[in-house]
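Issue: ligand-bound run for iron/sulfur cluster - logging full I/O for the record.

Environment: standard queue, default settings, no custom constraints.

Inputs:
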Amino acid sequence: MSNSRRLFLKGACIAVVGASGFTLARAKSTSATNVEPACKYALVHDETKCIGCDACSIACREVNQVPEGVDRLEIKREGPFGEYPNQQFHFTRISCQHCDDAPCVKVCPTGAAYKDPKTGIVCVDEWKCVGCQYCIAACPYQVRFINPVTKAADKCDFCKETRLKENSLPACVSACPTKALTFGDITDPQSQVVQVLKSTPSYRSKTDLGTRPKVFRIASQSGEIEL
Ligand code: SF4
Ligand code: SF4
Ligand code: SF4
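Outputs:
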């Protein structure tokens, strides 16, 4: 891994994910919803760089052992826009938005859906999940599902239990051949994710709902209607 790719793990978050790991995160899960995290992980999807190759979703499936028939990450393809030979496609990332104010956490009756107190990652404790599907109904982004193997609610966890534990970037971020994905601590002004957001206008999905998503998007110009 290059030095620049390691930068996101410096500071508070490395101690949080690397050292505390699974046990501490779960032990504190029930009191997690109202605690301001030590750091806040966020992701940027640069739609102008995305070529819709699906390397990200394939890597996600492999690293996180996502069963067939369900997805933690989908790349939605729209188009073609324009006329041959200048046709373009528009690719949108569909995955958990790691909402700062997460409806899934609010409705969970057992505390299985929780916001990690150290990283702000919205997680699922599969051992506490009773499969009631309240969280699936409450999620405005429709990214939760029942894992057919664990029978618990599941979704993107920013690779908290796999790649972050190894002090590596999320699988989708590492796999992307065009560097369309940037991940890091949004509270650290030096982080790569903050640098990208400072330098380029971005948008987030359904902000009118007050969920405060931590997945940012840099809009693709393709798909605009030319009058
Ligand atoms: S996108 Fe859905 S599953 Fe993810 S934190 Fe928000 S409400 Fe929860
Ligand atoms: S961060 Fe990890 S779990 Fe989330 S979509 Fe990327 S690879 Fe999948
Ligand atoms: S790997 Fe990168 S370029 Fe390919 S679909 Fe995913 S985000 Fe887009």
